[in-house]
């Protein structure tokens, strides 16, 4: 069919099942946006900064399981996306960047054309699994679909396509290819059989669920396997929601607490799925596993990287767990194993809650009490997130736990708006005032697109995490951590967002409940200094 290059991009995205795209219009992508507008099948979400576009596409992908798409301009627009692409790669999120390029007659000649970025492809290749530069309109749809399929294959990683502006305007005969039929990785039958036999024989099995379980949609199979073998389940922070945390076999993301460490040390079989054993889940790889370690992952390079696996299985997490359910016989777990593990996790959770003090316990409980089960709970890099949001605030459904896995400061708001755009439920954001300022302009995006984002802004007038580090390491000397901050409720109100300031748990719960019932958006400016103090020491 004859179409413009911009129409070819839109047609390819429609073929991929994309519903939303995130970005900023520019002289080097206008034909793409025009085609999207005329065709009407995709919803563009216009952000205020391209870094936010990449984070929002990432949040959308995590919350929906769909491809997250960014549309940016060449040069400065694309350089702005790099932090978001870095985060997406770190957390294994399927994000596709489509960017413009200068006129193909000038490409690579260093003539100084507007937004010229001669090494843009090389820059993108440092973070992306696959990057294609399209030089013919006829190849645009093929390139977009091919890169998108590679983005989603195995362990997802970002990808990018750059398209010269003249090829976006040009008309040509374009074929939009069909999608690949089989993109999931099927594990080796013998490897599955060995793990199935080990599970059937284990007296004290434990399952370890990483973010790959959530990403593969393997939560139901994981839960069924846990129930079949009476196997307690621990998760990484990225794996939260793989099994509901109110399930009696879920121990939560408390892998570094002594009581749960003891459960892992006493296990005679640990089956780890969709994980690379990151440092924050293993006390920087000091955690000890008892018995045999089996490791199922779509990426063969992560198996054995941090812990040697006696039973390695390369394959898709969902397919692998479903094959184990088909292959394995009945379990032989010790009758008291699961209950002993449950009591250990309850002890660890109670000890961690006690360290929070009463105010933060009440606020955390209020968030869980009033947040719908299917709503995303997003935590930025901030003290309340580290001390209770990332591990203690219960996560009850898959794809509802989001945070910057790279520990970047500031992605919270765009992650939340992407999640809200994707699943239609209110997204709850736990953020600090310092990190919030990195993307404060996205308040305008929330308003413009009427996104149900409820912002719980814990305000201590600075970078609280870094204050704690400096106080301990530099004899109390503080550098660059005390910030001038705006009147956040007034700022939000100026953009049309209902906002209020609260300083105690009762007021927080009342205002938070109202915001949830109203459907958002809303901002609660929480005076962190008025609450019982938190310490970074855990």
Tell me the radius of gyration.
24 Å
* pLDDT averaged residue by residue: 95
Q: Percentage of helical residues?
A: 40-55%
- Spatially, the strands of the biggest sheet line up as 3-2-4-5-7-6
How many structural domains can be distinguished in the coordinates?
3
Per DSSP, what share of the residues sits in E-state strands of 2 or more residues? 15-25%
Q: Count every beta strand, where a strand is a DSSP E run of 2 or more residues.
A: 20
Q: What do we call the CATH homologous superfamily of the largest domain?
A: Thiamin diphosphate (ThDP)-binding fold, Pyr/PP domains
Helix-strand makeup class: alpha/beta
Keywords:
alpha/beta, 6-stranded parallel β-sheet, 538 residues, Rossmann fold
Topology:
Elements: E1 2-4, H1 5-15, E2 20-23, H2 30-39, E3 43-46, H3 50-64, E4 68-72, H4 76-80, H5 82-91, E5 95-101, H6 120-125, E6 130-133, H7 140-152, E7 159-164, H8 165-169, E8 171-173, H9 189-201, E9 205-209, H10 211-215, H11 219-229, E10 233-235, E11 250-252, H12 258-266, E12 269-273, H13 279-282, E13 292-297, E14 311-314, H14 317-327, H15 337-354, H16 358-370, E15 377-379, H17 383-389, E16 401-402, H18 412-423, E17 427-432, H19 433-436, H20 443-448, E18 453-459, H21 464-473, H22 488-494, E19 499-502, H23 505-518, E20 522-527
Parallel strand pairs: 2-3, 2-4, 4-5, 5-7, 6-7, 9-10, 9-12, 10-11, 12-13, 13-14, 15-16, 15-17, 17-18, 18-20, 19-20
Antiparallel strand pairs: 1-8
Helix pairs in contact: 1-2, 1-7, 3-5, 3-18, 9-14, 11-14, 12-15, 16-23
């Amino acid at each position: 069919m004859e179409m413009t290059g911009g129409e070819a991009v839109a047609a390819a995205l429609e073929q991929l099942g994309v519903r939303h795209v995130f970005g900023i219009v520019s002289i080097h992508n206008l034909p793409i946006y025009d085609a999207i507008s005329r065709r009407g099948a995709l919803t563009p979400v216009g952000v205020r900064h391209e870094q936010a576009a990449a984070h929002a596409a990432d949040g959308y992908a995590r919350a929906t399981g769909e491809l997250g798409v960014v549309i940016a301009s060449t040069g400065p627009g694309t350089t702005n996306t790099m932090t978001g692409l870095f985060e997406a790669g770190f957390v294994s999120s399927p994000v596709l960047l489509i960017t413009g390029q200068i006129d193909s007659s000038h490409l690579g000649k260093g003539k100084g054309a507007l937004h010229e970025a001669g090494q843009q492809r090389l820059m993108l290749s440092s973070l992306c699994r696959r990057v294609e530069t399209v030089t013919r309109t006829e190849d645009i749809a093929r390139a977009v679909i091919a890169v998108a399929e590679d983005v989603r294959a195995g362990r997802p990683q970002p990808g990018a396509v750059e398209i010269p502006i003249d090829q976006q305007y040009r008309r040509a005969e374009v074929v939009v290819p069909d999608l690949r039929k089989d993109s999931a990785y099927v594990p080796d039958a013998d490897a599955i059989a060995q793990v199935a036999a080990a599970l059937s024989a284990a007296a004290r099995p434990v399952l370890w669920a990483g973010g790959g379980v959530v990403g593969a949609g393997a939560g139901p199979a994981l839960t069924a396997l846990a129930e079949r073998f009476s196997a307690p389940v621990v998760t990484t922070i990225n794996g939260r929601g793989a099994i509901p945390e109110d399930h009696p076999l879920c121990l939560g993301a408390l892998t570094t607490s002594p009581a749960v460490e003891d459960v892992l040390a006493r296990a005679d079989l640990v089956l780890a799925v969709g994980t690379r054993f990151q440092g924050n889940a293993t006390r920087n790889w000091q955690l000890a596993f008892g018995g045999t370690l089996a490791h199922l992952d779509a990426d063969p390079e992560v198996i054995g990287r941090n812990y040697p696996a006696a039973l390695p299985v390369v394959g898709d997490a969902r397919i692998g767990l479903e094959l184990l359910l088909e292959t394995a016989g009945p379990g032989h777990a010790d009758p008291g194993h699961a209950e002993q593990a449950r009591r250990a996790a309850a002890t660890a959770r109670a000890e961690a809650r006690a360290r929070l003090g009463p105010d933060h316990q009440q606020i955390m409980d209020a968030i869980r009490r009033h947040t719908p089960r299917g709503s995303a709970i997003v935590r930025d890099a901030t003290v309340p997130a580290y001390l209770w949001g990332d591990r203690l605030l219960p996560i009850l459904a898959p794809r509802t736990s989001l945070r910057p896995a790279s520990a970047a400061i500031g992605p919270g708001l765009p992650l939340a708006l992407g999640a809200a755009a994707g699943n239609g439920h209110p997204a709850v954001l736990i953020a600090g005032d310092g990190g919030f300022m990195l993307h404060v302009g996205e308040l305008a995006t929330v308003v413009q697109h009427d996104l149900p984002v409820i912002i719980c802004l814990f305000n201590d007038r600075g970078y609280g995490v870094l204050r704690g580090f400096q106080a301990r390491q530099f004899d109390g000397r503080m550098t660059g951590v005390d910030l001038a901050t705006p009147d956040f409720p007034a700022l939000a109100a100026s953009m049309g967002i209902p906002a209020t300031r609260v300083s105690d748990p009762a007021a927080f719960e009342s205002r938070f409940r109202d915001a949830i019932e109203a459907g958002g958006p809303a901002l609660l400016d929480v005076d962190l200094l008025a609450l019982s103090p938190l310490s970074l020491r855990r």
